[in-house]
Amino acid sequence: MKIEEVMKAQSCSGGYWKFDDDGYFDIDNARCADGRVYDLKFTKDYQLMSKKLDD
C-alpha cells in the first residue's frame, strides 16, 4: 500500500509528505473533499493517527 492510496481513502490529496525519524508519515497541507486543508499523520503501517485542520 502506498501513502497516496491511504490519502485517497481519507478523501484527501496533495500536500507535502515526509517519513519522520519517529516512524510516522506526516502530510502537511492536504486538501480534502470538504474543501479544507488538513495536516495528517499515519503510522508506518498506513493507519490514520490524526487529521487536524491546518490553520
Topology:
Blueprint: H1 3-9, E1 12-13, E2 16-19, E3 25-32, E4 37-42, E5 48-53
Antiparallel strand pairs: 1-3, 2-3, 3-4, 4-5
How would you describe this structure in keywords?
5 strands; 13% helix; five-stranded antiparallel beta sheet; single chain; 55 residues; mainly beta
- Please outline the major beta sheet: 5 strands, antiparallel
Helix-strand topology string: HEEEEE
Mean pLDDT comes to 92
Number of helices: 1
Structural features, described:
This protein has one domain. Helices cover 13% and strands 47% of the residues. The protein contains one helix and five strands. Strands 1, 2, 3, 4 and 5 form a five-stranded antiparallel sheet that branches. Strand 4 and strand 5 form a beta hairpin. The chain is globular and about 30 Å long.
Outline of the structure:
This protein is mostly beta strands. The chain has 1 helix and 5 strands. The mean pLDDT is 92.
